[in-house]
Amino acid sequence: MAEQLVAILKNQGADFTFAITTATIPTIQPREILVCLEVTGFCGTDLSLARGHLGSCNTILGHEGIGRIVAVGAMCEAKAAVVGQRVGIGWIRDACGACPNCMSAGAGETRCTTQVFSGRDVAGTLARYAVVPERYLVPLPEEGPSELLAPIMCAGVTAYKALKVANVTPGSWIGVSGAAGGVGSLAVQYAKAMGYRTVAIDGGGPQRRAICLEAGADVYLDYEEAEPDLRTNLLRATGGDLCAAVLVCAGAAAAYEDALPCLAYFGVLVAVGIPPPTSKVSFHPLTLIDYGIRFVGSITGDRIDVLEAVQFVIRGLVKPRTVLIDLIDLNHYAGQVDQLDGKLVVRLGDVSQR
């Protein structure tokens, strides 16, 4: 039987590793699609899965894949289900389309009660081939390099969706906490492209500051050097303005606590970053009452959000910073995803070679 190159997760936990090996190319059911992948991103969620922080997972991780259809199930009827069609594979691999959440307005499929996640519930994209259900196919335009589109399938669309969820007037100040990270730096770029004034909040020295300013931040605030506090520094930097919204992309309880005082009246705090399960965020509800502040959680976007987010890349308004590697080098880079200067993107081979 034909085989493919894959990365198999071994020893899930603190000492995880990947075995780069071969495996049989999966077969498809009548309503499934077989995709030959060119590249895939490897993000912080993959790292958390590998370390066991998010429970059990599939041995093949990955959920930011870009490739082309190479085989179509006998009962597939979708217009895009044709050999050669360029497609993307994100965190959500399948949604039922029938539960109350899927049927609700506002991208309910992202909270489908029976949704299936790439790399957690089914084999992910750290393989040459992946199987996609016809009903959750994500066709992509031909424009744009695959290595730049891969990060949009999770990190990019997550950042873009968070800005849509914030729903504040263009021209307003928007803060991004964790702005030098994979999601945060893309949130800064999208915010700038969408007409917002951006405040990048991060720490860790001049390198983090450079990443944020390169992404288009109007203001950079280092939370480690904020004296007497972050709010005072924000008011000084913006000429007296607070933020209409803050996207907390950092996975730390302190990031949420520091963001709250930075919000203006009727401001919105958008929760994106996931602190460790044992972390607790502490605040007094009087701040919410006095200022009319709203808290809202934002998860990854749906298929429409993906297509919208991709257009920013195609038009040159958003350009992810990437670190491009081959699959055989994954073990060297996987554990340091959070320290890299860009999104880790893994080459899986030339799609023309089958």
Automatic annotation (TrEMBL):
Pfam family, one: ADH_zinc_N
GO CC terms: cytoplasm
Signal peptide: none
Source organism, top-level taxon: Eukaryota
Top EC class for this record: oxidoreductase
E.C. designation(s): 1.1.1.1
Gene Ontology MF term list: alcohol dehydrogenase (NAD+) activity; zinc ion binding
InterPro entries: ADH-like_C, ADH-like_N, ADH_Zn_CS, ER, GroES-like_sf, NAD(P)-bd_dom_sf
Cofactor: Zn(2+)
Domain Enoyl reductase (ER): 13-346
UniProtKB keywords: Metal-binding, NAD, Oxidoreductase, Zinc
Family: Belongs to the zinc-containing alcohol dehydrogenase family.
Record PANTHER family: ALCOHOL DEHYDROGENASE 1-RELATED
Protein name: alcohol dehydrogenase
UniProt source species: Aspergillus indologenus CBS 114.80
